[in-house]
Amino acid sequence: MNRGKDLLSDLLEDESGQDLIEYALVAALIGLGAVVAMNGFSTKVKTAFNSVGSSLTNAL
Q1: Residue 25: in which H helix or E strand, if any?
Q2: How far apart are CA 36 and CA 28, in angstroms?
Q3: Could you give the dihedral angle defined by the CA atoms of residues 37, 39, 44 and 50, in that order, rounded to the nearest 10 degrees?
Q4: 57: Cβ–Cβ under 8 A, 6 or more apart, which residues?
Q5: How far apart are CA 49 and CA 47, in angstroms?
Q6: For residue range 6-50, what is the model confidence (pLDDT) as tens digits?
Q7: What predicted TM-score, i.e. pTM, was given to this entire model?
Q8: Number of domains the chain contains
Q9: Inside any domain, residue 12
Q10: Is 41 among the domain residues?
Q11: Considering the domain boundaries, does residue 58 fall inside one?
């Protein structure tokens, strides 16, 4: 019975996977931020290319 309690106690106190989970959460947060930023940035890039294309079409 003591051995089972010791095993359960060791499992509850084990924090070896905690760092991996924290890094995964940080990476997911950074990835989500990048996706949100790229959605806004892509609209500005599209507008800039359309402006340049219109300018070139009108110049010819």
Answers
A1: helix 18-59
A2: 12
A3: 160
A4: none
A5: 6
A6: 877 877 777 777 778 889 999 999 999 999 989 888 889 999 999
A7: 0.51
A8: 1
A9: no
A10: yes
A11: no
The helix or strand, by DSSP H or E, that contains position 43, with its residue range, turns out to be helix 18-59
Determine, yes or no, domain membership for 27. Answer: yes
Which positions ≥6 away from 38 have C-beta within 8 Å? none
Token reading at 12: 């509850």
Domain that includes residue 42, residue range: 19-50
Identity at 42, one-letter amino acid code: S
Whole-angstrom distance between the N-terminal and C-terminal Cα of the chain? 89
